[in-house]
Design brief:
elongated; 405 residues
């Protein structure tokens, strides 16, 4: 057995003459435990939040979107749909129109983004999984109907009664190429039944309404083959950037091709920045907590001076004595790290199993947690590296100051 490790382990488990050393050692262990557990919980929470954000934005925003780079709209004959459909990785697509409209319900008004799509969009966006009230449909009994954002319908003071399952709103679509003059109505109007209320993310919930593309073209004065965008679904989301590059080469500079990551780049970047800031703050707190470890090692060294002289008289060199106190520091830190990992992952598993914490204003949805091996290794590396440094340099300085090394 390694002599220095054996002695360090005995020092850790034995009772000290000075009770203050025990107290400081326990404080060191508790501090490392709390910070390690905090890293586990917070990184798992950020993983869950990132996954939730990705899900909320990725479902409504198609993996890939094609728009004209020169005009607001374009015509279907400008796109080779056969080539687009046969592109490797493209699963399906939907044609779409997008426009800002005014919506009225009784005496309340609101601006909204009107999305005109076909039924493929309902499958692409997993609309049925995001319904709060009603059902996902664009036609009912061959009559065009709409799906509205949950917050937008609340703002308008409307609701979908369970008795007959629909509400109605008046949509005001701006007339194109019309000169404003007194007495002329600048809007094309249509009463549209609402059969569903959707819940994706704050932006979609507060500003969006989905209707059949035929109805939106009629309201907006679009030609029969005129589009604002084409939404593409892919077979493998991890390869969407490569698919985007291929499609961009096919379409040339007349069109802009973007992934949903690029469209919501600010949101995803903000989440990653917040995660990095939290890690930096916790590492800084860990460094502060390591001063307890330094104090514990210093006081232990003072208490064990007699043992050090005995070991030296028996032929122990400075390296053996260094390893004893160095291993002592590592053992104290390891104890805190192990307890911290058990505590942190224990709390995460409880949240996953029982949903102890719910998100505010989320219709009872539990706070998301996602555990990854990558984060576990990162936490282990960070706390182990800092513990190594907090043990190595203080012990080295102690022995050097006392002319032992």
């Amino acid at each position: 057995m390694n002599v220095s490790f054996y002695i360090a382990r005995r020092y850790l488990s034995s009772k000290r003459k000075k009770n203050v050393i025990n107290i400081i050692t326990r404080i060191s262990v508790v501090g490392i435990t709390i910070i390690t557990a905090s890293l586990v919980i917070l990184l798992s929470a950020f993983n869950g939040i990132e996954k939730m954000i990705e899900k909320l934005y990725s479902d409504f925003d198609a993996p890939i979107t094609i728009r004209s780079s020169q005009t607001k709209t374009f015509f279907e004959n400008e796109i080779n749909f056969q080539q687009l459909r046969s592109t490797t990785g493209v699963k399906q697509y939907t044609k779409a129109t997008e426009e800002i409209v005014v919506i009225k319900h009784e005496d309340k008004w609101a601006n909204a983004t009107l999305f005109g799509v076909d039924s493929t969009f309902l499958m692409m966006s997993r609309m049925s999984a995001h319904m709060v009230d009603g059902f996902p449909a664009l036609y009912e009994n061959q009559e065009p109907v709409g799906i509205i954002g949950a917050s937008l319908l609340d703002k308008l003071g409307g609701y979908i009664p369970q008795a007959f399952g629909r509400e109605s709103v008046m949509i005001y679509g701006p007339k194109r190429d019309m000169k404003m003059s007194v007495g002329k109505n600048p809007f094309q109007t249509r009463i549209v039944p609402i059969v569903g209320r959707m819940n994706f993310n704050r932006e979609v919930n507060a500003e969006s309404m989905v209707v059949p593309i035929e109805l939106s073209r009629e309201l907006l004065g679009y030609a029969e083959n005129e589009l604002s965008a084409i939404y593409l679904d892919v077979t493998d989301p991890s390869k969407k950037h490569a698919i985007k590059t291929t499609i961009q080469e096919q379409l040339g500079n007349q069109f802009t091709v973007k992934t949903n990551d690029e469209k919501n780049e600010l949101i995803f970047q903000t989440s990653k920045t917040e995660r990095l800031i939290v890690i930096v703050i916790l590492v800084f707190i860990f460094i502060l907590a390591s001063f307890n470890l330094v104090a514990s090692l210093t006081m232990l060294f003072v208490e064990k001076k007699e043992d050090i002289h005995i070991l030296k008289s028996m032929g122990a060199d400075g390296q053996l004595i260094f390893r004893i106190f160095f291993y002592e520091g590592l053992l104290i830190a390891a104890k805190g790290i192990i307890f911290g990992l058990i505590l942190g992952y224990g709390i995460c598993f409880l949240q996953l199993q029982f949903g102890l914490l719910e998100m505010p204003n989320s219709f009872g949805e539990v706070f998301p947690i996602m555990l990854t091996v990558k984060d576990g290794l990162l936490i282990l590396f960070l706390v182990s590296s800092l513990s190594f440094l907090a043990s190595y340099f203080p012990v080295k300085m102690l022995l050097k100051r006392n002319a032992i090394v």
